[in-house]
Amino acid sequence: MEGLLDRPLNPNKLLKEQFVSNLTGSSLLEIAALSTIVPVVVVLRKWSSRDNIRRDSVKKNDDALADHKDGVYYFSALVIDCLTVVLPILLIFTILAEWAYICAISLVVVISIYILLKRSQSHLKAQQHLPSLRADISSYRVSVVLVTCLSILAVDFKIFPRRYAKAETYGSGIMDLGVGSFVVANALVSRQARNITSM
Asked: Which N-terminal stretch is annotated as signal sequence (predicted)?
């Protein structure tokens, strides 16, 4: 009876403890590459959409056909966002983790070429639409939540590199960066940042 009580209930407990222990994180260069990839993917998606101007909402007294078109538009935008933002980030954080530097450099080159092409064509257009600060802050907050959710869900699987997990004592990983990013994201929309006095 005594030997039965000494055995752990979960025989894989030791394996699980070894899997989540002694994490030292990754290099700061790799964290910089990963934290560059996310905003570049979001910016490329925003720039690639044909309608950067916010669409007017459908009025309540419009017909059902307009509601159907609006629903199809938002569903197609959701699918495109998943394919162009969520899927690349998920792949880079898991399967393509060994090529994070190459992915970061190639995405920065693509966005640089796009900026140069935009500047060369900007003198032809008389009026340019500048993106609003509110939209940029929203994009940053969405990307922080997206990376955090993907990392939290993927950290328990072997496909997620252990160096990206939260470091135990010393070091830094992409999940350590998430804590600071949440602080910055919430500070950007705080009452003090928006100059709102307390009631």
From this structure: none
